[in-house]
Amino acid sequence: METSPRVLYLIDISSYFYRAFHALPPLTTTRGVPTNAAYGVTTMLLKVLRERQPRHLALVFDAKGPTFRHNLYKEYKAHRPPMPEALVTQLPYIKKIIDALNLPAVVQEGYEADDLICTLVRRARQEGFAVEIISGDKDLLPLVADGVDMWDPMKEVRYDPAAIREKYGLEPGELLEVRALAGDASDNIPGVPGIGEKTALKLIARYHSLENLLAHVNEIKEKALKARLEEHADKARLSRRLTELEAQVPLTVDLEALAPGPPDREALRHLFVELEFSKLVKELGFDSRPEGTCSLVQGAEDLEDGASARTRVEPVQVGHRIHPLIGHGSGGNGKDNETEFHQRTHGTTLMLVKIRAHARRPSSCHRAAARRRRRPRSRAGCARAARRSAGGRAPRPVPPAGTRRSSRRARSSPRLCRR
To answer: Residue by residue, what is the 3-state secondary structure of 232-283?
Structure first.
């Protein structure tokens, strides 16, 4: 990408809903709420914000309902199944996370996100912006040009004009003609039956556009290919109209206003805790609490996770007794015991942590195991322990003469009763 004081980052956010949902395993919370799409989209957005530090950024959404392409071709995307229910339940959480991150969004009724991105790219280049499209959708590759790159942060793949020429042997804009010939099964774009991407690449590499190919169809020596092009020329032209992105969407957005705002850290913390994104909570430092707040801690591990390396915890007596972190030694009466701890860092109060420790009475199995551990060893057990501590297998002691040593099988096998 060319050096520019202003770079506009355009995120094709709608496509990442499905990609994250299908790429990650079916993650759920302890309450059974699916979270894989929400987690994937969140980590992608945080990666973009961390690595790019954008001053101008927009999340571009698909609009609900039909678009102008459905008016051109009623079968456009008609075969697509409905959105999975597990993904539908995550959309409100994703939108709440986006709102908490305070990221600007762009959506326009009657148009897809690809059309909005195409329009924003055109306007940004006219106003002197460099553009980076953040998407993994190949339909956006024709927009790549000087000053317009494309980056997929989930696969760490970057496209510029040189990369596209190296991979496809074509200019970025010519990929539109390839899709018109080969069609697109995912969008139900028909193309020319019998022509795949490989054949389409060869034809466009020679003729550079669909109309030029159809104008010189008589030069095609392969009879079957020539017949298909002549028979399905109208389908090819319709496919090109469906594939071409709209660059004149009537957007009223001001590009200078597409700037990320300060995130709502408390809202993010609540969402990450609710969705059980424990890794993100720790990475972003959301496990710390503001001064004077209280938190319920259920164990010593929770308290250690919330405390920094420079923090020491001082118990403060609030009731009739002081208990350790998890309530050891508080008695076996089975009642709840509350202990409040005063946490300080270099003499400055950080938080008050209230621990509710439940002193449980050991079960019968645990009591039996404790008795077995306290039982004194037999002579054979002492000999085995001595051999283990010596680091080798010492010879077994020879039994005295005249004694009979029974086998383990004989000792363990049941005796038969005789009538």
So the answer is: CHHHHHHHHHHHCCCCCCCCCCCHHHCCCCCCCHHHHHHHHHHCCCHHHHHH
Residue 253, pLDDT score? 94
- Both tokens of 407, joined, read 């086998």
Quick count: other Cβ atoms within 10 Å of Cβ 329? 9
Let me know how long the chain is: 419
Q: Euclidean distance between the first and final Cα of the chain, in Å?
A: 97
- DSSP code per residue over 292-318: T-EEEE-SHHHHHHHS-TT-EEEEE--
> 224-238, 264-278, 304-318: which has the minimum mean pLDDT?
304-318
pLDDT of residue 348: 34
Q: Are strands 148-152 and 157-159 parallel, antiparallel or unpaired?
A: antiparallel
Helix (H) or strand (E) holding 80: none
Rg of the chain taking only CA atoms, in angstroms: 34
Burial 61-91 (b: 16+ CB within 10 A, else e): bbbeeebebeeebeebbeeeeeeeeebeebe
